[in-house]
Amino acid sequence: MKKIVLVLIAVAFVTAWCLAQAAVSQTLQSNLTAQDLVAEARNHIVEISVADARVMLENKEATFLDVREPDEYNLGHIPEAVNLPRGLLEFKINEMIPDKSAKIIVYCKSGMRSALADYTLFRMGYKNVLNLKGGWEAWNLEVQKPQIENAIWDLGKIKGHQRLKHNFILKNTTKRTLKIKDIRTTCGCTTSKMDKMLLLPGESTKLKVEFNSGNFSGPVEKMIYVYTDNPQDPPFLFKIKANVMNQ
User: Which of 18, 108, 187, 189 is catalytic?
Assistant: First the structure.
């Protein structure tokens, strides 16, 4: 009788272990790729278009949560968006947004990291979370930007120790006032000055540039970056190219 009881206990233990392993196997599938995880997350989240998100931004109907890294965020982000990198989301979201009924629009560069973040927030009890379809890249495509006329000044073959001048044109084609905050060059051989630092909608300005070919020899490329006060605008890039024949 004692042996029968021991056998039954052993059978019960093995059965319970097998059932537990089967449950774990079903819950945690192995060999999933990042794309698989994103696809799974998208089955549980709601996405919002850029157009609808812009309306919500204008009406201040939601908090925009940028889950990219800080260096990505600093290069340009949706106005008033708060930054919390995907890797810190679970640890800091309760401090940043304690209200789990708050409406949150999450975005990243293309919508993949934010899909995972959305699903995580959903599982943590946040009830009104939306994923920005296409992310920052889609937002940038739909947001109207100032225009640059001929952003590359190609000098072709030139001699050394020449001082050459050129005017780039920047036009404010948006419906907002554009304020130039800073102008930076990548070399002391290039100087630059903007005619106007404040552009009303429809206005244009000249970026006056002087390049000194100096002792350069061979192909040369120099950059000029123009920064505005709007974090939504990445710096405008102007380029000088030349082949210096310094003989």
Answer: 108
